[in-house]
Amino acid sequence: MSSSKATLEKIVSLCKRRGFVYQSGEIYSGLNGVYDFGPLGALLKHNIKNKWLTCMMSFAEEVVLVDGSLLGSADVWKASGHLDNFSDPMVDCLQCKKRYRADDVDLEKNCPHCGNKNWTSVRQFNLMFKTELGAMADATSVAYLRPETAQAIFINFKNVMSSYRVKVPFGIAQIGKAFRNEITPKQFLFRMREFEQMEMEFFCKGEDADRFFELWVERRKQFFMQLGLTPERIRLRPHASDELAHYSKACIDVEYDFPFGWKELEGIANRADFDLTQHGKHAGKDLGVFDDATKSSYVPHVVECSVGVDRLFLTLLFDAYDEDEVDGETRTVLRLHPAIAPFTAAIMPLSSKISEQAEKIFLHLKTKGYRVQFDDGGSIGKRYRRQDEIGTPVCFTYDFDSETDGKVTVRNRDTMQQERVAIDGIEDYLKNLLAKN
Ligand SMILES: [Zn+2]
Q: 363 CA distance to ligand 1 centroid (A)?
């Protein structure tokens, strides 16, 4: 599938026009780097998360789900290193007070905003949002909005082990919000201040970590193929040794070819025993696991797979976006995978005179749990365009023959081919469509 026609401007405009994404607080001039998801965006996001979780839980090794708190005490972020190291170098323009990431501007040149050259020195700016719990403001009341979801998994490792019958090797997965006070949020959903992550931490013995790392890299790559992303726009980029965190043994980014260059979509890392060792040390707790075979205790190693929901959302839109020509007019179409598309099908009466019969089919499918939309406004051509633009894979049209032959016309989004199918066969048709890989 081609996405060469997609630009950031076109995607932003489509998202707003059709109710995928809105600037947060738009009626009050907006909040920079923060977005709200509209009816279609919320459905698309839900489908992405659902697909990720289903995939994570489909393998032979057990993967359990947790849902950690958004607030974390200073202790957690001290142990994880975020309190001391999670910062970006930033610089201010003394003239117009605009703040930049130091690597985003050329300090030899003038301020891109006001044209003066009057920079502060480069300072470190911690990306965590700090807050206070309760009415008494002292050191013990300080908390931070989590800048990543992973720590909630590490600090609950022992809880999960002791309360839930699970044995190493196994994974803990989590989908949830995280917050980073980015100095310069940019490229729409690509770098946001409030975002959602899908992370899985896989715990295993140290000697098995390399093998599981390779396995998860392959599985994660397969996942993106299953979502229908164009294979040529996906690549694996192993980190060079000087890019790796000091504790990390290996890291591979799954990158996507965005209009603004190859960028990280997912990071897969062999984190060794760093996380559990750090938390064990700081909390003064033994986070080791007893091995019955060797009669000794060891700290499990971790393989991490981490992808942003919003970034994947943006990627899918870029990849699915296409324009072609129909009857001399430009058609905008989102070629989304049927399992991901906000709606699987639209049900349309050819004329308002037979609206009632078409609605009966719609309600039947809806109550059976299919994501279908009833669309009876405007010419049939207009309705097709509308559904194409939001990525609905098929439209079923009830016409004047339907009453007598018990069939409807199904029209395919991608091929625009039409065929007659029995009304009784619509459910099977949708089932096949959703099962397609
Ligand atoms: Zn300036």
A: 58
What is the pLDDT at residue 2?
44
SS3 of 320-353: HEEEEEECCEEEEEECCCCCCCCCCEEEEECCHH
CA of 116 to the centre of ligand 1 (A): 6
Would you place residue 1 in the very low, low, confident or very high pLDDT band (cuts 50, 70, 90)? Answer: very low
Q: How far is the CA of 117 from the centre of ligand 1 (A)?
A: 7
* Structural element, H or E, at residue 243: none
Residues 297/274, Cβ–Cβ less than 8 Å? no
Burial of 135 per CB tally in 10 Å (0-12, 13-18, 19+): exposed
Domains (range + CATH), the chain: 8-73+145-317 (3.30.930.10), 343-435 (3.40.50.800)
So what's the pLDDT on residue 4?
Answer: 67
- Quick: pLDDT tens for 174-218: 999 999 999 888 899 999 999 999 999 999 999 999 999 999 999
